[in-house]
Amino acid sequence: MKEEEVPQDKSDLCKSNIKELIYATDKDGNYTTTLSTGWEPKTIALSNSLKEINERIEIAKTQVINGEMSPIYYFMELNRMDISILSSYVEMWKWRVKRHFKPKNFAALSDSILNKYANAFNISLVELKNFKSE
């Protein structure tokens, strides 16, 4: 793509004044870099993925409120983590982290284990223990 053809469509990147570095060809046909504010197909894909993430967060919140899951599950979704990432942050086996998603098991956890989760989510122990739906 030629340097002057690099798309400058409005995207979510524009809202935060972030521009993406794109490779293009200059007038002489040599590769160079230029900045782009976004392009429509990428904007659509980004919007769709953010919508899906927000839906998963809302589902997790509802499950915690209904007593189906523990706050650990909600904060994992809120922080865009999966079970593998969370287990590596808290240095526990995945099967053990999954057990902590159950409210009964969560209630029995010690403060030292809960602190590992709180640190991984960058929240206080009190916030983790006393989940409040925003």
Describe the structure.
It contains eight helices and two strands. With 134 residues, the protein is mainly α. The protein has two domains: 36 residues, no CATH class; 75 residues, 434 Repressor (Amino-terminal Domain), CATH 1.10.260. A hairpin with a 5-residue loop joins strand 1 and strand 2. Helix 2 runs antiparallel to helix 3.
List the topology elements.
Blueprint: H1 12-15, E1 20-25, E2 31-36, H2 40-65, H3 71-78, H4 83-90, H5 94-99, H6 103-107, H7 111-121, H8 125-129
Antiparallel strand pairs: 1-2
Quick structural summary:
By secondary structure, the chain is mainly α. The chain has eight helices and two strands. It has a two-stranded antiparallel sheet.
Features:
elongated; 134 residues; 2 domains; 434 Repressor (Amino-terminal Domain); 2 strands
